[in-house]
Amino acid sequence: MGKRVALTGNEAVALAMKQINPDVVAAYPITPQTEIVQYFSSFVSDGQVSTEMVRVESEHSAMSATIGASAGGARAMTATSSQGLALMHEMLHIASSYRLPIVMPVVNRALSGPINIHCDHSDTMSARDTGWIQLYSENAQEAYDNMFIAQRIAEHPDVLLPVMVCMDGFIISHSLENLNIEDDKLVKDFVGPYEPKQYLLDVKNPYTSGPLAMYDYYMELKRQQAEAMFTAKPIVQAISEEYGKLTGRHQGFFETYKLDDADIAVVVIGSTAGTARSAVDHLRAQGIKAGALKLRMFRPVPREEIIAALSPLKAVAVMDRADSYAGFGGPLFGDVRSWLYGTKCDLPVVNYVYGLGGRDVIMEDVLKVYDYLNKLVNHQVPLELVQYLGVRE
Amino acid sequence: MTTTGNGWKDLPIGAVIEKAGNAREYLTGDWRTMRPVWDPEKCIQCLFCWVYCPDASILVKDGKMIGINYEHCKGCGICAAECPKRASAITMIRESDADAPSAGSTSAAATGKGGAC
Fold it and tell me: If pLDDT is split at 50, 70 and 90, which confidence band does B117 have?
């Protein structure tokens, strides 16, 4: 039987890595991810895992070594945050295009500059087009659970894509939380052994990895990679359901809160979802039909499901903890708004960029978003597509 | 690529090349959009084309130009540009206008000896 313990997000993720017991971990410390690498190093030095730990000189090298290990046939992992993820950027594309099932926890932290160590999603949102599956976690429990699910998704023979397991820096990574942890045996049975179809250290069956492909083959290979994302969607669902049956904790592509009969709602990613639920409860007590949708899977996109969930609403605010500097709000807003376009779901979709660089977001802030939506629905305010929440004018 | 088809559904996952030691099978002449066509009647055997070819696609035997290796010629046109005006033995044509053989084959004058690759 599993047990209930108090752990920080970083401790929970490090524990998940210990239970997965990967063959290779190549990582470089960066705030707020540092503790994951630190705790995992202790597991290695204490002989609690059989992992080969590679101490590298940068995140570019961390991802490169992880790619090499994975191509060699190892179950390989790394972990990072912010600038570290940015430094990995070119290698992120290599990992996904080589179709290597690497799992990487990313502790979300604002990108420089100005230099900042606190939470926003600008790091992983900047990596949204790198061909990695992205799962976001509201709390330590979800981060812990997502790690095992991610391992299965990544290694599924019809997927073979790397997966980022994202959680909010400090807010989740450094906060102590009660969560359920599973027995090593349950994890081992669920994750299963890694048996790659082909791997470079298989000297009896040599092959070439990472060749040149020009205009004669590149496009077909990228089309093939794109297909893996389409294929991944139902597999994410099936594996998440399987894990849910085992543990009683099921995460869908997203989680709705009092959305069924709602008039107005916010779409949110990560730890702010809890704040949004409190705001919903507060508004429901006043008779306002508010709801919330917390997105867990951002890549691949759960487009049809989101359309169905948002269709009955009268107005939606998409909350982005990152700006895309497109001159039109954040990345999630751009996506959600485009998914709804051309459907029967013709409702106002507005954007709030919030919480950049760890700017605190309390229930009163989220209530302002709902207040705007309420007024918008009642034609009391003009339509403002992009707004910034909690910023000094 | 060692596959039956060359569409995206047929290619090996992750761009791997499943067979080892296959570099010789990669016929870089595939890149060519313009094809040099050699006229042996006009050729004065100055070998300027052989000297200037940035690849090794001018085939020479016993000190004489005998043809062009289309399996590796990229169609840069330097041979045609360097061919003396009084000879003009090499002309560039569009690859799409070449009747036969297609990219990846060897000039007729060089076949039979097996030295093209």
Answer: very low
Question: Do B17 and A207 count as a contact with CB atoms less than 8 A apart?
Answer: yes
Q: Which residues of B touch A211 (CB under 8 A)?
A: 15-17
Complete domains list, chain A, with CATH: 3-247 (3.40.50.970), 254-388 (3.40.50.920)
Q: Please report, for the domain that includes residue B65, its CATH number.
A: 3.30.70.20
- Give me the helix-helix angle, A184-191 and A218-247, nearest 10°: 150
Confidence at residue B101, expressed as pLDDT on a 0 to 100 scale: 54
Choose the closest CB to A207 out of B9, B16, B31: B16
pLDDT at A332: 98
Among the listed residues A298, A292, A301, the one whose alpha carbon sits nearest the alpha carbon of residue A274: A292
Cα–Cα distance for residue pair A164/A150, rounded to 1 Å: 8
In a domain, B72, yes or no: yes
Q: Is B39 inside a domain boundary?
A: yes
- pLDDT, one tens digit per residue, over A369-379 is 999 999 999 99
Q: What is the pLDDT of residue A226?
A: 98
CB-count burial class (<10 Å; 0-12, 13-18, 19+) for A373: buried
Residues of chain A with pLDDT under 70: none
Q: Does A223 touch chain B (CB under 8 A)?
A: yes
Task: Give the closest residue to A303 by CA, choosing from A265, A270, A264, A342.
Answer: A342
Residues in A 102-121 with any Cβ partner in B closer than 8 A: none
Look at chain B and report how many structural domains it folds into. 1
Between helix A9-20 and helix A34-45 the angle, nearest 10°, is 40
Q: Is A170 left (phi over 0), alpha (psi -120 to 50) or beta?
A: left
pLDDT digits (tens, 9 = 90+) for A301-347: 999 999 999 999 999 999 999 999 999 999 999 999 999 999 988 89
Q: For residue B8, give how far its alpha carbon lies from the nearest alpha carbon of chain A (Å).
A: 4
Give, as one character, the DSSP assignment of residue A51.
-
- Facing A208 at nearest CB: one of B6, B17, B30: B17
> Does the residue B106 lie in any domain?
yes
In a domain, B7, yes or no: no
- What ipTM was estimated for this complex? 0.84
Interface test with A, best of B4, B6, B8, B9 (most A CBs within 10 A): B8
At B108 the pLDDT is 38
Instruction: Quote the domain boundaries for residue B66.
Output: 27-110
